[in-house]
Amino acid sequence: MPSRTPDQHTAHRTDRPAGSTGQSAGPAGPLERERAHLAASRAALRAMREDVEALDISDVTANWVNAEVLQRQIDARIEALADLSGTPLFFGRLDLVPDPEPARYYIGRRHVHDADGDPMVVDWRAPVSQPFYRASRKDPQGVGLRRRFGYTGGELTAYEDEDLTDPEETEQVSALLKREIERPRVGPMRDIVATIQPEQDEIVRTGIEGTVCVQGAPGTGKTAVGLHRVAYLLYAHRERLARTGTLVIGPNRSFLRYIEQVLPALGELAVRQTTVEDLVTGATGVEVRGTDDPEAARIKGDARMAEVLRRAVRAGVAMPTEPCVVVRGSRRWRIPAHELEEIVRELLDRGIRHGAAREALPQRVAHAVLTRMERAGEAPDDRVQDAVARTPAVKAVVKAVWPEVDPAKLVLRLLSDAAFLAEQSEGLLTDEERKAILWAKPPRGVRSARWSAADAVLIDEAADLVRRTPSLGHVVLDEAQDLSPMQYRAVGRRCATGSATVLGDLAQGTTPWATASWAEALSHLGKPEAAVEELTRGFRVPREVISYASRLLPHIAPGLSEATSIREAAGSLRVRPAAVEELDAAVVDACRAALAKEGSVGLIAADARLPALTEALDAAGLPHLVPGAETDAGTRLTLVPARLAKGLEYDHVVLDEPAAVVDGEPDERTGLRRLYVALTRAVSGLAVVHAAPLPEPLAGGAGGGGSA
Ligand SMILES: Nc1ncnc2c1ncn2[C@@H]1O[C@H](COP(=O)(O)OP(=O)(O)OP(=O)(O)O)[C@@H](O)[C@H]1O
Predict the structure, then answer these.
(1) Contact 174/148 with Cβ under 8 angstroms?
(2) Residue 219 annotated in ligand binding
(3) What confidence score (pLDDT) does residue 14 get?
(4) Is the link from the previous residue into 127 a cis peptide, with omega within 30 of 0?
(5) Which positions are annotated as binding ATP (predicted)?
(6) What pLDDT digit, counting tens, does each position of 293-329 carry?
(7) How confident is the model at residue 706 (pLDDT cuts 50, 70, 90)?
(8) Does 200 sit in the ligand 1 pocket, CB within 6 Å?
């Protein structure tokens, strides 16, 4: 039941600058009434929490196990009902067109109800909240008035109305929305529930059955959308996902640290967040201590390796050459080799997992024995079949014909036994490719092997050939463009019976095997039917900066169009040449200038430049952090290796020596893509400082930004 408003509300625009309280905010003014509703909602939330805290479960739980489970659920509920001081309880209000009575909903991060159970705040994920994000004058969706609230330090200080019933009134950019989006960045990533845009909301609320792939330019909100989609799905399908699980996969640990607080802020505390590498090492138990050269990594990540592994697993299966003779009492039952072979071939043809087939084989052989017994006039039952399956003769057949496969040992053999690899990759890999992936010095065993990240994925694939990997209910895969086909398969296994949200940008692919087309990636993931959506409206990067970075697009991703930007921020780009011997000092200057402003500062540089820059910053007395570490008012500067910049953002970015960033990569296209990533991390301003000539695509053309 929506809360009813006895006083018929009159829609009214304040249109005053966000943050101001305006003149209408007298004691009985609308702002005061909204504050009163906030206070009442807070009290109601407190009461909800106290109700749960007061629950006495001693009567209802028959044993201590139940009691413990119930207590855990209660504790989680109490935690979920906390009133977080920095997080406003509601951020919006919808007044529906009276039909027949007016109805009003306050939209917030969680559901709050009064003592009668009537809602005081509705969860943003509830169906009634959807028009808050999607309704427009063209399509009001039953909404008469949409109100957005502005907060300052937890205080409700402003509101802003849109009358959706008047199609004549022109759409205006909401000042509160703009203020929220343009708020300086300090700490880790924040949720965007108050300002999700219609095109983003469509993706967030896609049904759980559908896999969605989002291609989006830097800063279009892919990560934000993916995280809010998990929160939405958990709300809409709580029980199902509690059973099957959800997972968020990101490119590296510093990125995960950057995003880790978004879901908890939305009340979702149980979503696992990991990298592909941690996912497969966790599943296989191998430790990654080695690296591959790019060519070896490319081949190991190629989808052809899936077939090589499939063959290698099957290669262990030998055709029986001896009959199986089972002795029971005074009788001997003989299954000839050719009949055993038929059983083996039938199991192979069924394409079931190696381990499952190995478990089925003794029963099949026993069944053949039972058929003979029946033909001889006996009447054996299931227990006899089980007993036969356990006889030494049948066990010996299984051992000889269908040996157990240890996934890591199998991969170790493939990478160290040239003849074995040649046999299993016949017609799939070339001699050079085989040479590229064979270990020069084979390790002694699985434990001493210096496994690479790509090896761990191969072992994970082999493990799945032996035993099916359990599938989760939903997987969000961020920065997907960097995955190899074999990595896509590893992720695909984890959502084989669930769905996925695949997020990425082809222009930001910086691995040698980076995705060339989403259709191909989705087929490796096992979701070829997924819809590909495009986001082009940028929320991070100021217009001048994104158009500067977009000069690289024809060289790195010719098919993609330039993103737009909602940030005007004139003067946001500075390109500053420096003499070689003055480069470090110029970079330090640029950092100081950035630190003089509000917000976080990221100094992005090629790996090779890090020692010199660390020294220069230390000498200048500028404390700095590593990516992913939490910034605070004292230390707002992070020194970011270009290779870790992906997915992150800083209010002000100082980019050191673009040419060095390009040179740090094995080929020019990858180098320019790395540069594109680095150029698109800034929220408010970018200063490019260089001594070497700028890479050609940046140097050319007019409007290269102001010089400082
Ligand atoms: N609707 C929105 N309201 C407010 N802020 C938004 C909105 N959408 C995105 N943002 C903000 O814009 C910034 C960029 O979003 P996000 O990191 O999700 O983009 P991305 O597409 O993943 O970028 P990249 O490709 O660089 O990884 C973030 O600070 C995010 O909070």
Answers:
(1) yes
(2) yes
(3) 40
(4) no
(5) 216-223
(6) 989 999 999 999 999 999 999 999 999 999 999 998 8
(7) very low
(8) yes
Work out the pLDDT band at 16, boundaries 50, 70, 90. Answer: very low
For 555-601, give the DSSP string: HH-TTPPPPEES---TT-EEEEE--GGGHHHHHHHHHHHHHTSSS-E
| Residue 270's pLDDT band (cuts 50, 70, 90) | confident
CB contact set of 585 (below 8 Å; sequence gap of 6+): 578, 616
SS3 243: helix
pLDDT of residue 505: 96
pLDDT at 633: 67
Which residues are CB-neighbours of 661 under 8 A, at least 6 positions away? 604, 605, 606, 642, 655, 671, 674, 675, 678
For the chain, what percent of residues have pLDDT higher than 70?
91
Domain residue spans of the chain: 3-182, 188-316+405-537, 324-401, 543-699
**How many CB atoms lie under 10 A from the CB of residue 500?**
26
The enclosing H or E element of 95 equals strand 90-96
Helix (H) or strand (E) run with residue 274 in it:
strand 272-274
d(CA 177, CA 7): 28
Cβ neighbours, 10 Å, residue 448: 8
Any ligand 1 atom below 6 A from CB of 219: yes
For residue 150, give the H/E element and its range.
strand 143-152
Minimum CA distance residue for ligand 1 atom 26: 218
Establish whether residue 462 lines the binding site of ligand 1, counting it when its CB lies within 6 angstroms of any ligand atom.
no
Task: Round to whole Å and give the CA distance between 643 and 183.
Answer: 27
The ligand 1 atom nearest the CA atom of 197:
1
Strands 143-152 and 331-335: unpaired
Confidence of residue 22 (pLDDT cuts 50, 70, 90): very low
In angstroms, the CA 155 to CA 137 distance is 30
Strands 155-163 and 143-152: what pairing? antiparallel
- Nearest alpha carbon to residue 674 among 572, 606, 628, 614: 606
Domain 188-316+405-537 part of CATH 1.10.150.130:
no
Sheet containing 573-577, strands listed edge to edge, beginning at the edge strand earlier in sequence: 573-577, 682-690, 650-656, 601-605, 637-641
Return the closest-CA partner of residue 692 out of 653, 664, 652.
664
* Whole-number Cα distances in Å, 216 to 255, 268, 500: 18, 25, 16
Let me know if the fold of 188-316+405-537 is the same as that of 543-699: yes
Q: What pLDDT score does 21 carry?
A: 36
Q: What's the chain's Rg over C-alpha atoms?
A: 31
CATH of 543-699, one of 3.30.1340.30, 3.90.1150.10, 3.40.50.300, 3.30.70.660: 3.40.50.300
Q: Is the CB of 542 under 6 A from ligand 1?
A: no
